[in-house]
Amino acid sequence: MDPALRPSVDEVWHWLSEVPDPEIPVISLTDLGIIRDVEWRDDTLVVTVTPTYSGCPATTVINLDIEAALAGKGLDKVKLECRLSPAWTTDWISAEGREKLRDYGIAPPIDGTAADGVLMKRIDRLSGRSNLTIACPRCGSANTEKISQFGSTPCKASYRCTDCLEPFDYFKCI
Amino acid sequence: MATAALDPAARQAALLEFLLRVGDNTLILGHRVSEWCGHSPALEEDIALANTALDLIGQTQLWLGLAGEVEGKGRSADDLAYLRDGYEFRNILLVERPNGDFGKTLMRQFLFDAWHYLLLKALKGSSDTRIAEIAEKAFKEVSYHLDRSRDLVIRLGDGTAESHRRMQEALGELWPFTGEMFMSDALDAELVEAGIVPAPESLKAGWDEIVAETLAEGTLKKPADGYMHKGGRRGVHTEHLGFILSEMQFLQRAYPGATW
């Protein structure tokens, strides 16, 4: 590509902010915090992506979506690189992304509650014996209970509101 | 301590062996756990087991992918998973134990998770950054697995008379397969010396602590340490591995190179 016609890195970030997550299309790849870097290396645009879960089947689809979106903008030399470290954490989900999740019916993650092996303390933190609550994304009630530690995708857990009785997904913390 | 100047070929062989050991553990356990898909006692547990299996298979891709790279013969993670014979697998015998009932599957998971968690925690500090990076990623997922399997072992142990009986029985059956996690050989020694991996026996005290605390809370009695089975880490397996491989590898064996 003619260097003069190359889009700026900022512009590419903006385009990527319009690529939806394949599993949770209400948030974008940049909301999710998995795009770690965008840079030009000579005439090739290099996009560095970090996986959410190592076995997440969406990872392959995400890579294809990035390539397709950038090809749609006329970028034909795109290279995707996978970066494992620092490992992705739900803390990287943007503030805007969290609001979009809530509106969509998924309770956003509560930072600082990721499993860390300090078992009893964590169970206490999440079992109602603390002031941290996973609020129902529909009615806002704090009276919720865990149904299962896993949900419809690797990144979610299943909860239920004991007031409005609605079952919902909680974006679990890692 | 003097830093031994290791022969690079010997170092590479030891590293490959280690990567197969860790990657085959996640591969075989992931496959075993995935056998529950569509058969669990409750939908939520079905999803949980399938997700756990998915994490383990994802980690396998990272470990065996690196193994192929270290080996340098152009073998991919898929080649290593689908085209090796039983005697080339390096997983511990515990992970190839049949699933049994739901309680036994969870007991096996807990005994493994507690060890896997401690292993990955140590590997995060590996002098080989490629290993440290994979461990950092997997550690988060495995911490979550341990949360869950530990919780269920307690609930089923301290549950009904029937669930308690089954958990105690599962523990008794699986216990003789736990010793292999902490056994070491010359290959381990070489990598321990280089700061690449922790000494297997160094994980025992932490594991004992997690297990003792969990079993006590689940009103389960820790079996006495007796004879411990071994062999998986050097390719000597029980008859169960062959059945797993025949199912897992069928497609690539019958239709070599098949893609879709």
UniProtKB/TrEMBL annotation, chain A:
Originating species: Shinella yambaruensis
Gene: paaJ_1
Organism lineage string: Bacteria, Pseudomonadati, Pseudomonadota, Alphaproteobacteria, Hyphomicrobiales
Domain of life of the native organism: Bacteria
Residue ranges occupied by any MIP18 family-like domain in the UniProt entry: 10-71
TM segment ranges: none
Domain (PaaD zinc beta ribbon) ranges: 129-172
Signal peptide: none
Name by which UniProt lists this protein: Phenylacetate-CoA oxygenase subunit PaaJ
Residue ranges of coiled coil: none
TrEMBL record, chain B:
InterPro entries hit by this protein: Aromatic_CoA_ox/epox, Ferritin-like, Ferritin-like_SF, PaaA_PaaC, PaaC
Coiled-coil annotated spans: none
Listed name of the protein: Phenylacetic acid degradation protein
UniProt source species: Shinella yambaruensis
